[in-house]
Amino acid sequence: MGVTVDVHEVFKYPFEQVVASFLRKYPNPMDKNVISVKIVEEKKDVSTGIIYRKRIAVCQNVVPEILRKVNILKVPNVQLEEESWFNPQERNMAIRSHCLTWTQYASMKEESVFRESMENPNW
């Protein structure tokens, strides 16, 4: 069984500001569920200028207590892996993330693309 959700949103801020905000949004005092985010790999392709980053996020397990009676769900933290490809010349950034914790039982993935708006290149 799979569920797909498509969301399209225009951020009315310059592209560079949106990318910078995304890269530094966690951890923060407003969301206590994200414990840490660590860059485990970062490299720049000199021929294309594309910056690749791999980050690991550690989050508190927010599965309801009643479900944690199942042993596999009884973990204090959940790990997520995020990969991003930032292309400053074409002004876009692609992101893929997935859960590392319960991969043998279920999969969760998210894909996002940030790019200039067709309505306004400053958004």
TrEMBL record:
<dbReference type="InterPro" id="IPR006797">
    <property type="entry name" value="PRELI/MSF1_dom"/>
</dbReference>
<dbReference type="Pfam" id="PF04707">
    <property type="entry name" value="PRELI"/>
</dbReference>
<dbReference type="InterPro" id="IPR037365">
    <property type="entry name" value="Slowmo/Ups"/>
</dbReference>
<dbReference type="GO" id="GO:0005758">
    <property type="term" value="C:mitochondrial intermembrane space"/>
</dbReference>
<feature type="domain" description="PRELI/MSF1">
    <location>
        <begin position="1"/>
        <end position="123"/>
    </location>
</feature>
<protein>
    <recommendedName>
        <fullName>PRELI/MSF1 domain-containing protein</fullName>
    </recommendedName>
</protein>
